[in-house]
Design a protein that fits this description.
about 30% strand; 7 helices; six-stranded antiparallel barrel; about 35% helix
Length: about 160
């Protein structure tokens, strides 16, 4: 069983762009983590679930970037107190929405392209499909993604690394 980490903090605007918010991970937790850099984790902020990466700052501190969807789910705004619980997860573990899985099962070309991407890029595309509430919209996005893959229309296909 993974170790569960928990702490109290405040949601803060991130330097450089006040529309970005984050939660600083206390140093006493950062020093317990197995490595530096981005670490995938899942947990809750004020009871709202997340699946994020702990990102590092140059000073050795860590933080979680908190987007609008998580802020709304946790009912928090910059300056508000938060309670965070998380555990580290395998960075190669990826949960795909069932709508995307079904489309990839039925479309060999889209599947081949998708599974040859890095896990991080797969995660981004899966998030795009998963980020809408209705099943019909997730199906529509999964089908749109497959079409774009086959037509070479994805940004990553037009602008390779």
């Amino acid at each position: 069983m993974s170790q569960i980490f928990s702490f109290h903090s405040t949601l803060e605007p991130l330097p450089g762009n006040p529309s970005y918010t984050g939660i600083t991970v206390p140093t006493e937790i950062v020093v317990q983590l197995p490595e530096k850099g981005r670490l995938r984790c899942k947990g809750t902020v004020n009871g709202a679930s997340f699946n994020l990466a702990i990102q590092g700052r140059k000073n050795g501190a860590g933080f979680l970037m908190v987007g609008g969807a998580l802020r709304r789910a946790a009912k928090i705004k910059a300056g508000m107190p938060v309670f965070v619980e998380f555990e580290l997860v395998d960075p190669d573990e990826l949960e795909l929405p069932e709508e995307l899985l079904e489309v990839l099962t039925q479309d060999e070309d889209a599947s081949r392209f998708f599974y040859n991407l890095t896990v991080a890029k797969q995660r981004g595309l899966a998030h795009y499909v998963q980020s809408v509430k209705s099943t019909d919209s997730r199906i529509k996005r999964a089908l749109e993604l497959a079409r774009k893959i086959k037509n070479g229309e994805l940004y990553m296909q037009k602008h390779p690394d």
